[in-house]
Write a structure and sequence with these properties.
CATH class: Alpha Beta
Largest sheet: 5 strands, mixed
Strand content: 25-35%
Number of strands: 5
CATH topology: Nonspecific Lipid-transfer Protein, Chain A
Shape: globular
Strand order of the largest sheet: 3-2-1-4-5
Structural class: alpha+beta
Helix content: 40-55%
Number of helices: 5
Number of domains: 1
Distance between the termini: 21 Å
CATH architecture: 2-Layer Sandwich
């Protein structure tokens, strides 16, 4: 199941990177984010050079910490739910700066 979610995230990130809104949100933005699923699995995202890379495992000193269930992450990446809605419904917890949080809505 881990590889399936990782592949989904990579595939959907590649599609998202083609959108003008996503490109604008990423312009000059460099961050490290740690995603922890409710079952304990972790993934890290590296945002730099107008791209996003995701890999399995933790990362030191993340700028953002994200917590959610696998189901919520799938819905976000499949665009069945927006980040703002997920946060308001408490299905997605994000710790980071306010400006970073605002950028998430253009990435998901």
């Amino acid at each position: 199941m881990t590889d399936d979610l990782l592949e989904l995230m990579r595939e959907r990130i590649a599609i998202g990177l083609e959108r003008k809104k996503t490109q604008e949100a990423l312009d000059g933005w460099e961050r490290k984010a740690l995603l922890t699923l409710k079952d304990g699995r972790q993934y890290h995202f590296l945002v730099a050079n107008n791209t996003i890379k995701v890999n399995e495992g933790p990362i030191d000193n993340p700028d953002m910490r994200v917590e959610a269930s696998e189901e919520t992450m799938r819905k976000l990446f499949l665009e069945e739910m927006g980040a703002t809605t997920a946060i308001l419904k408490r299905k997605l917890k994000v710790k980071g700066s306010t400006s970073d949080l605002m950028k998430l809505k253009h990435i998901f």
